[in-house]
Design goal:
Length: 395
């Protein structure tokens, strides 16, 4: 999994308000008062907006627009969108602006904007609004293409009267994302066909977890290429890779981020809140399995939060299929092995010891324990710190 950083900013604006006035012959006192009120409203709203954004630019904003310091009332969304649920009202409006921009990306010259005072912008930091952008992306695995190419969202700024206005649009791309999104949706629907979504949340989660283990193959080739400084995300880093194919066309191939986004997407489609956690996963002592950049999930089951790592539960023994077949005969211990990182508390994930629960004793072989002492730690840096801070601790 690769951490993405975006070094641009964001902001919002508000819409013009128009008023009409009726004139009566002789201008009686009540009419005069009415006109004064209309002028006051014009000064307070229209003139005030124009003092933040030039009218020529404001007229080109066809999408959403508001002032961050005085946000609109944000829309309500289902609690399956975990990060959105934890944002403050202003950030929810930013999130909704980005979401609206993506949903209207096929409209020509569609632009949205947000204005923010220089004081508030300095307080939050230059990258803050892009943090909200990634919160939206992490909540919506179906928009995987934004993570493949974050520069699809373009931004320019206008500064006026102690306000910065960030104006956003989506650039035209050579790739056609819409058919790929439909293909992902269809793959997810096909995946869920033999999952009983009328069952309890615990049963649905377990069924999705176990089927993903059987469906997805860990993409070692992508992992090797991720060490390059100029690495850009592969489809195998997304839900598309896990449920459809990676960028090389290998069916159901993904790395940890792909597993985690697929798990999130499938649970969301089943009505279960799920979030994408970023951090590190390491063995104790350190080994070749260590992943300094890793991804797993937080899941809400019956009003309680858990953490699950589908990737590390996916134990593959491709080099010795005969040995793997013998391991699977001990169904209880093999189940334990494939659920070692399933529905744990955050504290438990920080240290999961190897135990005899996964110690196999097979005739003709030395006793074999496929598990390790491990630790999973949530990231506390940059955008990952922001998104992780929105995810409840599993207790």
């Amino acid at each position: 999994m690769q951490t993405i950083n975006h070094n641009e900013n964001t902001s919002y604006l508000s819409e013009d308000r128009k008023s009409s006035k009726k004139h009566k012959k002789g201008f009686p006192f009540k009419t005069l008062i009415f006109i004064v009120l209309i002028i006051a409203i014009y000064v307070l709203f229209i003139e005030d907006d124009d003092s933040i954004v030039p009218a020529s630019i404001r007229s080109e904003i066809t999408g959403k627009y508001f002032v961050y310091d005085t946000p609109d009332v944000p829309s309500k969304r289902e609690d399956i969108y975990v990060l959105y649920s934890s944002l403050n009202d202003a950030d929810k409006c930013v999130y909704n602006m980005f979401l609206d921009l993506v949903e209207n990306k096929n409209i020509e010259k569609y632009e949205s904007a947000v204005s923010i005072s220089e004081t508030k912008n300095t307080e939050l930091g230059d990258d803050y609004l892009w943090n909200v952008f990634y919160a939206m992306c992490y909540d919506h695995p179906e928009y995987f293409y934004l993570l493949i190419d974050p520069s699809m969202v373009e931004c320019y700024t206008v500064e006026k009267n102690d306000y910065i206005t960030y104006i956003f649009n989506m650039k035209d791309t050579a790739t056609d994302e819409d058919p790929m999104v439909k293909k992902l949706e269809q793959a997810a629907d096909d995946f869920l066909k033999d999952i009983d979504i009328t069952a309890s949340d615990e049963e649905i989660e377990l069924a999705i977890h176990d089927k993903l283990l059987d469906t997805v193959t860990y993409d070692s080739e992508i992992l090797e290429s991720m060490d390059k400084d100029d690495y850009q995300w592969d489809l195998g880093n997304t839900a598309y890779g896990a449920l459809v194919a990676d960028s090389a066309g290998r069916t159901n191939h993904a790395v940890c981020s792909g597993y985690a986004f697929a798990f999130e997407y499938l649970l969301q489609k089943s009505g279960i809140p799920c979030a994408y956690i970023t951090g590190s996963a390491n063995t104790i002592p350190s080994s070749e399995k260590d992943q300094p950049d890793h991804a797993w999930n937080a899941v809400k089951i019956n009003n309680r939060w858990y953490e699950t790592d589908v990737t590390w539960d996916d134990n593959e023994f491709e080099e010795d299929e005969e040995f793997a077949a013998m391991l699977k005969k001990d169904t209880e211990k093999y189940f334990n092995l494939c659920h070692q990182y399933y529905n744990k508390t955050t504290k438990e994930m920080e240290f999961i010891p190897a135990t005899d629960d996964t110690l196999f004793e097979i005739e003709g072989y030395e006793p074999y324990n496929a598990s390790f002492d491990t630790k999973h730690i949530r990231s506390t840096e940059g955008t990952d710190d922001f998104t992780n801070s929105l995810i409840p601790i599993a207790e």
